[in-house]
Design brief:
Strand content: 15-25%
Bound molecules: adenine
Order of helices and strands: EHEEEHEHEEHEHHH
Distance between the termini: 33 Å
CATH superfamily of the largest domain: SPOUT methyltransferase, trefoil knot domain
Helix content: 25-40%
CATH class of the largest domain: Alpha Beta
Shape: elongated
Largest sheet: 5 strands, parallel
CATH topology of the largest domain: Alpha/beta knot
Structural class: alpha/beta
Length: 241
């Protein structure tokens, strides 16, 4: 397995994705800062085609659900073999199954995962995967929100993007991380730039004052106001890290 050391000697953060749609990758992960970091070897992306482990001439990967019902379920034997192959090359990375049934993904989880060696992600399709694989391989189920996507690939990309941008050297100005949403349990304060007057609307006077203490106090108050208004649940949530 390719292992790319970064320019400062750190091992690259490794994203592995098990999917039936390898063509979807890198997709949006190949552009902008995250894509540049991929090209620079700060992180690596390996896709594993589940169908390579499929059965018979048609490389069958799914079957009808036991007990009846709609849709198809990814077979335990096929998926077990695919997960084992991806895992063997990445024994230290957490094994995650993207699923609307999972634990909600958040910034704290992104931080924890980005501090580790990488992730092995299973992107499912169809009605789901055989439960025995989840239990037998100790997959952690993670959801990116309370809605149902047609597959786990977009969710895997969301998780990877949120982790990679936290890796050292990926963002141009790391100090911007300290002020973004969810830092300190708050949403971000409003930002303004030129022009000073736009469609009859100005910039809050304090931001033009040059008084750094007053600006910091205004931003803190705005972050608190917006968080209380839009996400009262965050104000009740204990702070992570
Ligand atoms: N797969 C389908 N929907 C999903 C969601 N909301 N989160 C993670 N994986 C998914």
């Amino acid at each position: 397995m390719a292992h790319f050391p970064t320019s400062d000697g750190r091992a690259a953060w490794r994203a592995n994705v098990l999917t039936l749609f390898t063509d979807m990758f890198p997709g949006p992960l190949g552009v902008s800062l995250v894509g540049q970091a991929l090209d620079a070897g700060v992180w690596s992306l390996t896709t594993h085609q589940i169908r390579d482990f499929g059965l018979g001439r048609h490389r069958q990967v799914d079957d009808t659900p036991a007990g009846g019902g709609a849709g198809m379920v990814l077979r335990a034997d096929v998926l077990g073999a695919a997960v084992d192959a991806a895992r063997a090359a990445n024994p230290d990375s957490p094994l995650i199954y993207l699923s609307p049934r999972g634990r909600p993904f958040d910034q704290a989880m992104a931080k924890t995962l980005s501090a580790g060696p990488g992730v092995v992600l299973l992107a499912g399709r169809f009605e789901g995967v055989d439960e025995r694989v989840i239990a037998g391989r100790g997959l952690m189920e993670v959801s990116i929100g309370d809605y149902v996507l047609s597959g786990g690939e977009l969710a895997a990309m969301v998780l990877i993007d949120a982790c990679v941008r936290l890796l050292p050297g990926v963002l141009g100005a790391p100090e911007s991380l300290a002020h973004e949403s969810f830092e300190g349990g708050l949403l971000e304060y409003p930002q303004y730039t030129r022009p000073r007057e736009w469609e009859g609307s100005g910039i809050p006077e304090v931001l033009l004052s040059g008084d750094h203490q007053a600006i910091a106090a205004w931003r803190r108050a705005e972050a608190q106001r917006i968080t209380a208004q839009r996400r009262p649940d965050l104000t009740r949530k204990p702070e992570h890290d």
